[in-house]
Design brief:
alpha+beta; 9-stranded antiparallel β-sheet; 25 helices; about 55% helix; elongated
Length: about 600
């Protein structure tokens, strides 16, 4: 072992130890390791920031933006809505939601697919009395196995493709993973459809920040547009459309107010409806019923053309100018250039028009204005903004365009017209230009810590290969597996990846193990492709801890899971993937190349 190899192994070893210790953030450890690699000379200065310009980083970032835009389109909710009445228990909910998440993970980033489906699953669980702990972990695991089918489904596939390009000069294609991934996904979904019974059902979900700042339901005001396409709709039919989540408190027609309108009353163009419900349900109902907020049609002026319209929640303080006054009296639009969209007051329901409601200290209001105008308006009115969270109310949803853009990107990659990075970069730009997602929301969709982690670790892990360290480890393993069935070496590589990824993060696992697996194949005279596939599958299938993958972390609090709950369902699923995935890889990718 040379000095450079020893330094490279030492650097990676210390980095791994820091990951396992968990004392510092992953991204901080990664950038520190990069700096240390530069200092000791195992990372060349001209390669230090190659990870930030790497196609891997670009693909993951663009996939996150595309996934977020697709989630905002509401396409999935529209498709699933006819099935929701039949999902009355965990026995039907788990297979459906897990399969949908797995399917979505094949075309979008798996964490984006899970984030899209979680609110729907939790809503159904709340209505039917199903424990969230029965649903969320199977969905998280479904997103992980579904992501193994395509290049963009999960980070390990993208990283392994990059390693293959470095070694063989040609990356894996978009659908090269599909034969193995589809087989593993099918078996995994069958197991999860029954295996969820291994999970505890009495877990109490931890409160999230959004839940902590949830208040009494908002009431808002909408108008039926002149070109309304839902003719012959009654109040009762609109209530059915809302599935009980939104209440029509009053109907105002020709200046006359009708509190609690009768169900058989026909709704007409020009009618004003006063609605009550939580903001997510209100937004969904307004979009589906094709209604318009009465105040949102008043355009807010912008100081600069590059500004965006924003919506914020704020609480009225005791010394606010709004206490005891209405939006009409205070002339919010004329004086502050903001629109009042909704009001929430605990234990209070009104049938008056929104602009005439006298506000009180402690009321939560939703204001719309320019991003430069809002801070000054909030200060002038004496209201305090709540903790920032995603809030949409009555915005226009684009359903067709995001679906077409995503489909076009997948087709272009499939027929090899453009590289994956270019296709998804173009898709992300198209999503922004089409209005499917705003630039501010696109930035929010980017997972900064993960992107920095990957970009910083690429040159660090490459030090093992560049110094010959990967060949050194591979030669040791080659002595162990020499003369033995090659499938044992393949299974061992996958097992190592599976054992490492719960503690290292799957990106770090791939960057360290993949070069070793390829070098081992070379020394054994075998095809490196199945070994790289084994690394990708093993690193993607992290079912044992909540910290190895963002999907597992995402469901921990809402599901009320403890650390030890993950192996209860994850250990048998890990064994299934290992013992089924290894021969499946060998069958699809022959070991003798």
């Amino acid at each position: 072992m040379t000095l450079q190899q020893a330094l490279a192994f030492g650097l990676v070893g210390v980095t791994i130890a820091a990951f396992i210790w968990g004392r510092w953030r992953y991204d901080v450890i990664a950038v520190t390791a990069l700096l240390a690699g530069l200092a000791i000379g195992v990372v060349p200065t001209d390669k230090a920031f190659a990870g930030f310009a790497n196609d891997v980083t670009v693909i993951i970032a663009c996939a996150l933006v595309v996934s977020a835009a697709f989630a905002r389109s509401g396409v999935v909710e529209t498709v699933l809505r006819p099935l929701l009445p039949y999902l009355t228990s965990a026995r039907t909910q788990v297979p459906l939601f897990t399969a949908v998440v797995a399917l979505l993970s094949m075309v979008t980033k798996n964490v984006g697919a899970l984030a899209l489906m979680m609110p729907i699953a939790l809503q159904v669980a709340r209505r039917t009395g199903t424990a969230p702990s029965c649903l969320l972990m199977p969905m998280a695991f479904g997103s992980l196995i579904g992501g193994t089918v395509t290049l963009v489904g999960t980070s390990p596939n993208i990283l392994v493709s990059e390693v293959r390009e470095q070694i063989l000069g040609q990356p894996f294609g978009m659908y090269d993973y599909a034969p193995v991934g589809l087989g593993v996904t099918a078996l995994g979904l069958v197991f999860l459809a029954f295996g969820y019974r291994l999970l505890p059902r009495a877990r109490v979900a931890a409160e999230t920040l959004d839940a902590a700042i949830e208040t009494a339901p908002y009431f808002t005001e909408v108008i039926v547009p002149e070109d309304w396409t839902l003719e012959k709709r009654t109040v009762a039919s609109l209530h059915r459309l809302a599935s009980g989540d939104v209440t029509i408190v009053a109907l105002i027609r020709d200046g006359k107010r009708r509190p609690s309108p009768a169900g058989n009353l026909r709704v007409r163009s020009g009618d004003i409806l006063l609605l009550e419900g939580e903001h997510r349900e209100l937004d969904d109902f307004i979009s589906r019923a094709r209604l318009k907020l009465t105040r949102a049609d008043r355009p807010v002026s912008m100081e600069e053309p590059t500004e965006e319209v924003r919506i914020v929640e704020a609480v009225i303080s005791p010394d606010s100018l709004l206490v005891g006054r209405s939006a009409k009296q205070e002339d919010l639009y004329g004086q502050q250039n903001v629109n009042l969209l909704a009001v929430s007051r605990s234990g209070y329901r009104t049938s008056n028009e929104l602009k005439g409601v006298r506000l009180r200290a402690g009321d939560i209001i939703v204001l719309q204005g320019g991003e430069r105008t809002l801070p000054g308006a909030l200060k002038a009115l004496g209201v305090l903004p709540l903790a920032e969270r995603e809030l949409r109310l009555g915005g226009i949803r684009k359903q067709i365009l995001p679906t077409l853009i995503l489909g076009a990107a997948m087709i272009l990659v499939a027929v090899q017209v453009v590289p994956v990075a270019v296709a998804f970069f173009a898709a992300a730009v198209a999503m922004v230009l089409s209005g499917a997602i705003r630039m501010r929301e696109a930035y929010s969709a980017l997972d900064g810590p993960v992107l920095v982690l990957i970009a910083a670790l690429i040159p660090v892990s490459d030090a093992i290969r560049a110094t010959g360290g990967a060949d050194l480890v591979a030669s040791t393993l080659a002595h162990i597996f020499a003369g033995r069935p090659p499938i044992l070496a393949l299974g061992a590589v996958m097992a190592v990846a599976m054992a490492a990824t719960p503690f290292l993060n799957n990106a770090a696992t791939v960057l360290i193990v993949a070069p070793i697996g390829a070098a081992l194949a070379k020394l054994l005279g075998l095809n490196p492709d199945p070994f790289l596939m084994a690394v990708a599958l093993g690193a993607a299938c992290d079912f044992l801890t909540p910290i190895g993958h963002q999907c597992n972390t995402l469901v921990m609090a809402p599901g009320g899971y403890k650390f030890g709950d993950y192996p209860r369902l994850g250990a048998p699923l890990t064994a299934l993937v290992l013992f089924v995935g290894t021969p499946l890889i060998a069958a699809v990718w022959p070991l003798q190349g």
